[in-house]
């Protein structure tokens, strides 16, 4: 096990023939505690893979340092090469060697530098199959005889077999369908915990990040916007854009009430989670905070997405240019064109409104 400390790391790709230089990672500082799993979350192109490749040693930072515990691996003197970093890497898909069976794939790293004298490769292969919760009989199967989720578990088993201190996973579930994605994700997180490895998981899927990790690190345009526990990132997002990205939210203009922890907005007076730092505010309403009530403000139903157990209802406040999303139990969902009444449940997060020129 090792902690990972990224300090002030930047990486710019030089100008390509077709465009300008890209600052893919911009002054990122991130601490990943020993034995924990951190999800690196952000939209496509925000620099997630580049950050992972810098930690793996496939890329060298332009500035800043990367350390595993107290051992600086990049940024001071000659960078430590990837093979000497004791890092396991699980790429997106198609990662298995098609000409080797499952045992050959899992034992691949062991057959090289990291094999301990006298260690039994086949015993380790079986241990690894147990760890990733696959039947031992799979050892003799070819990769094409496995499902996508099983293949990703084998890829993890291969990464874990040489007992790396750190495991880096680059969108390992992106090719799997929703149900398989969830079960494979949970199995992978369990295996990492049992192996005691420190993990970094790149994903653009906010529910995957929130449900699997101990810490969520959110990147936007190469910069680290927020790092915290899943609950912190969901309950106290750094800005309204992050609230929309993680969990979804409606942003409504509001005005602080001088007497304390409340604000007025198109939905009436609402309670705030903390004293506001400005008079003009942006109030962030989570879909589960927007509720259909008997005595609220009138809104017209613009769109309904039915998910079974619940439904997302897009609403437009009557006579106002305010759009809202409410999450209601599936069986109670209204239909498009209905006029309903809405209110706000619980305290809402407020941010200073952007200053207009
Ligand atoms: N080798 C490269 N040369 C030039 N630009 C690159 C290179 N690799 C990445 N980039 C650019 O750096 C930025 C960050 O890319 P990166 O792959 O790290 O993003 P990402 O968040 O992992 O995206 P995705 O989720 O789509 O995989 C992008 O604008 C990308 O075009």
TrEMBL record:
<keyword id="KW-0547">Nucleotide-binding</keyword>
<dbReference type="InterPro" id="IPR003439">
    <property type="entry name" value="ABC_transporter-like_ATP-bd"/>
</dbReference>
<keyword id="KW-0410">Iron transport</keyword>
<dbReference type="GO" id="GO:0043190">
    <property type="term" value="C:ATP-binding cassette (ABC) transporter complex"/>
</dbReference>
<dbReference type="InterPro" id="IPR017871">
    <property type="entry name" value="ABC_transporter-like_CS"/>
</dbReference>
<protein>
    <recommendedName>
        <fullName>ABC-type quaternary amine transporter</fullName>
        <ecNumber>7.6.2.9</ecNumber>
    </recommendedName>
</protein>
<dbReference type="InterPro" id="IPR015853">
    <property type="entry name" value="ABC_transpr_FbpC"/>
</dbReference>
<keyword id="KW-0813">Transport</keyword>
<keyword id="KW-0408">Iron</keyword>
<dbReference type="GO" id="GO:0016887">
    <property type="term" value="F:ATP hydrolysis activity"/>
</dbReference>
<dbReference type="GO" id="GO:0015408">
    <property type="term" value="F:ABC-type ferric iron transporter activity"/>
</dbReference>
<keyword id="KW-0406">Ion transport</keyword>
<dbReference type="Pfam" id="PF08402">
    <property type="entry name" value="TOBE_2"/>
</dbReference>
<dbReference type="InterPro" id="IPR050093">
    <property type="entry name" value="ABC_SmlMolc_Importer"/>
</dbReference>
<feature type="region of interest" description="Disordered">
    <location>
        <begin position="1"/>
        <end position="20"/>
    </location>
</feature>
<dbReference type="GO" id="GO:0005524">
    <property type="term" value="F:ATP binding"/>
</dbReference>
<keyword id="KW-1003">Cell membrane</keyword>
<dbReference type="Pfam" id="PF00005">
    <property type="entry name" value="ABC_tran"/>
</dbReference>
<dbReference type="InterPro" id="IPR027417">
    <property type="entry name" value="P-loop_NTPase"/>
</dbReference>
<dbReference type="GO" id="GO:0015418">
    <property type="term" value="F:ABC-type quaternary ammonium compound transporting activity"/>
</dbReference>
<feature type="domain" description="ABC transporter">
    <location>
        <begin position="4"/>
        <end position="246"/>
    </location>
</feature>
<dbReference type="InterPro" id="IPR013611">
    <property type="entry name" value="Transp-assoc_OB_typ2"/>
</dbReference>
<keyword id="KW-0067">ATP-binding</keyword>
<dbReference type="InterPro" id="IPR003593">
    <property type="entry name" value="AAA+_ATPase"/>
</dbReference>
<keyword id="KW-0472">Membrane</keyword>
<dbReference type="InterPro" id="IPR008995">
    <property type="entry name" value="Mo/tungstate-bd_C_term_dom"/>
</dbReference>
């Amino acid at each position: 096990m090792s902690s990972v400390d990224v300090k002030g790391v930047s990486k710019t790709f030089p100008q390509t023939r077709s465009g300008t230089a890209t600052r893919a990672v911009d002054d990122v500082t991130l601490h990943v505690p020993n034995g924990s799993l951190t999800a690196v979350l952000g939209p496509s192109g925000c620099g997630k893979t580049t950050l992972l490749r810098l930690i793996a040693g496939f890329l060298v930072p332009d500035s800043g340092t990367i350390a595993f515990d107290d051992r600086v691996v990049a940024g001071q003197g000659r960078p430590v090469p990837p093979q000497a970093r004791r890092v396991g890497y699980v790429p997106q898909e198609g990662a298995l060697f098609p000409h080797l069976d499952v045992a050959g794939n899992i034992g691949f790293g062991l057959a090289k530098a990291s094999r301990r004298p006298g260690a039994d490769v086949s015993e380790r292969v079986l241990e690894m199959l147990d760890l990733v919760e696959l039947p031992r009989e799979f050892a003799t199967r070819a990769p094409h005889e496995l499902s996508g989720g099983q293949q990703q578990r084998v890829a993890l088993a291969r990464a874990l077999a040489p007992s790396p201190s750190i495991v880096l996973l680059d969108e390992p579930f992106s090719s799997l369908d929703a149900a398989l994605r969830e079960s494979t994700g949970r199995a992978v997180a369990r295996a990492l915990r049992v192996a005691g490895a420190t993990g970094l998981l790149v994903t653009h899927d906010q529910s995957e990040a929130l449900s699997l990790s101990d810490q969520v690190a959110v990147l936007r345009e190469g910069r680290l916007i927020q790092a915290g526990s899943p609950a912190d990132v969901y309950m106290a997002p750094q800005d309204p854009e992050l609230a929309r990205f993680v969990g979804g939210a409606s942003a409504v203009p509001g005005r602080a009430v001088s007497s304390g922890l409340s604000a007025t907005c198109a939905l009436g007076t609402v309670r705030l989670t903390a004293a506001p730092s400005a008079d003009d505010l942006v109030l962030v309403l989570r879909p589960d905070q927007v509720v259909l009530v008997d005595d609220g403000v009138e809104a017209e139903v613009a769109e309904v997405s039915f998910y079974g157990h619940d439904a997302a209802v897009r609403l437009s406040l009557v006579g106002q240019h305010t759009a809202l999303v409410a999450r209601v139990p599936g069986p109670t969902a209204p239909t498009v064109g209905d006029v309903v009444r809405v209110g706000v449940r619980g305290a809402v997060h407020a941010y200073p409104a952007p200053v207009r020129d």
